[in-house]
Amino acid sequence: MPDQSHIAMTAAAGSVGDKAKRGVSVARQSRIAEITPIIARVGSRNQLVVKVTSEDGLVGWGESGLSGREGSVAATIKHFASFLIGQDSRNIGRIWQETYRSQYFEGGRVLTAAMSAIDIALYDLLGKRLGVPVYQLLGGKQRDVVPSFATSMAKTTEGLLKDIKLLVDEGWQCVRTYPGSFDDKDVFDPWSTLSKTAEELIAIRETFGKAICLGVDLHHRYTVAEAASFCAMMPQGTLDFIEEPIRSETPEAYASLRRMTDIPFAVGEEFSSKWEAARFLDAGMTQYMRLDISNIGGFTEAMKVAAMSERHYIDLMPHNPLGPVCTAASVHMSAAVANFSWLETRQSPAEALGYHNDTLFPKQVKMVGPNYVVSDEPGLGIEVDEDELRKQDPSHIEAPHLRRPDGSVTNW
């Protein structure tokens, strides 16, 4: 009679061997076969999306956030591809470290924008491979819908009031204005715009009362003195947040402005690493974290910044000015963190920018009123019509080169 224990041991050994073979097979199938940047005109701007293909033909999509400099980012992505092809696409954290650390000059917005697109695509790819939505890879979702804030780009008080009434009637609780404040010849005179913008915001608050959260995006066009003067024009309680009043290169400048006003700041869309974010968080120089998942380093870095922000009781208010891939990634991240306020949307009825073309992107994150519905489909839950996307000529687009009235160059 056969030795039953020997048979069991032999079967177990065979089972382990089979699992090992399957593991090797999956690892081979998961290796990166191709990384392809695609620049296309979508709506009023270009988008840079990245396609990562594994050896078994599975595809993940990502998006870079460095608008207007897509060619530089695409070149960096191609360089990264030279040493990433052949690697296991599941090793997302290791790939992040290698792309960041394998050069003497670390970081910078071009590098991290390229890293972001690849990282997002790898998460999309892994979610599809495992049959789970990306938020499950981040610890599971903490909310079923992701509320958004919307923007009015109107240039008159009447236009702003009309837009915001439309948004409030559609259910938005948080709205933002974007004064622009430069003429059709790209001349920006900060002092002449301060009082006009202040009067507009005061009128909005008087019309809609305290029920809405009201912010303004100053697009880092002002100096500390100019921004402080603007804040002083705001009656107490008019503004719930002021976004990017000055540039972020010098945290000490923000510290100076922070001492001059009690209006909450929303800062972070320019950050390209956790190290940049940490300086603002540790010094209390922002009250909302405006990180951009397509600039800061993808999911891998964004989740670390989210955790750092939670330590300081700071909610995320993610920057999301791009297309459907960035929006889907931002929704999954927003669903998975505890500390969250609103996600920026450029799809409200007050804007018609064309960034979320449903012919080019036939499956996107759905919106119901002001809320994004978190997709339960594998990966990001989006589809890209690559053939149609490649037909969209990425004609050269350049942001306005703003000048002061004296002819000197100032910030876009």
Encode the helix/strand succession as letters.
HEEEHHHHEHEHEHEHEHEHEHEEEH
Coarse shape: globular
In terms of DSSP E residues, the strand content is: 5-15%
Q: Compute the number of helices.
A: 13
Our count of domains comes out at 2
Query: Could you report the average pLDDT, rounded to the nearest whole number?
Result: 93
Separation, N- and C-terminal Cα atoms: 86 Å
> Helix fraction?
40-55%
The CATH topology of the largest domain is: TIM Barrel
Oligomeric grouping of the chains: single chain
* Broad structural category: alpha/beta
Number of strands: 13
Descriptors for this entry?
single chain, 412 residues, alpha/beta, 10-stranded mixed β-sheet
Write up this protein.
The chain has 412 residues and is an alpha/beta fold. It has two domains: 105 residues, Enolase-like, N-terminal domain (Enolase-like, domain 1), CATH 3.30.390; 244 residues, Enolase-like C-terminal domain (TIM Barrel, Alpha-Beta Barrel). The protein is 41% helix and 15% strand. The protein is built from 13 helices and 13 strands. The strands form two sheets. Strands 4, 5, 6, 7, 8, 9, 10, 11, 12 and 13 form a ten-stranded mixed β-sheet that branches. Strands 1-2-3 form a three-stranded antiparallel β-sheet. Helix 7 links the parallel strand 5 and strand 6. The chain is globular and about 90 Å long. It starts with a helix and ends in a 22-residue tail after the last helix.
